[in-house]
Inverse folding.
């Protein structure tokens, strides 16, 4: 019935939702499985001011490894998100790369300060090694 790499989400209105994932980080998998409709997560680079009182999972291993784009690509392959929020100030090349991978989502662009406020109300933060200025985004289910 269950396959290796699957997580059961029992939070989804009492039902059971299965996640079959290529994500290897157990803590990220656990957090994704606990997310329900309307919940959000934030993916940031190492220069982003981390919000207080929000759990952070640090996956950075070196400068620019992994990048925000790499983490976003992997997570959006495994979960369906309805909305993405990017800062206006984000590097244009990075912004276009992300937009190309999440074309079915509603796109919001805010200032970096507004993204910082939104990040305070997300379920958790994934911190990457990305060193780009204004490196952050929010994904909402």
């Amino acid at each position: 019935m269950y396959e290796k790499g699957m997580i059961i989400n029992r939070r989804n209105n009492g039902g059971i939702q299965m996640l079959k994932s290529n994500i290897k980080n157990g803590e990220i998998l656990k957090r994704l499985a606990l997310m329900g409709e309307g919940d959000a997560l934030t993916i940031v680079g190492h220069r982003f001011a981390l919000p207080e009182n929000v759990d952070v999972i640090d996956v950075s291993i070196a400068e620019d490894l992994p990048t925000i784009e790499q983490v976003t690509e992997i997570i959006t392959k495994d979960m369906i998100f309805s909305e993405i929020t990017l800062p206006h100030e984000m590097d244009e090349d990075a912004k276009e790369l992300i937009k190309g991978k999440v074309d079915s989502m509603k796109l919001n662009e805010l200032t970096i300060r507004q993204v910082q406020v939104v990040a305070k109300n997300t379920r958790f933060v994934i911190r990457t090694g990305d060193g780009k200025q204004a490196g952050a985004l929010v994904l909402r289910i």
Observations:
- The chain has one domain: 37-140.
- The radius of gyration is 14 Å.
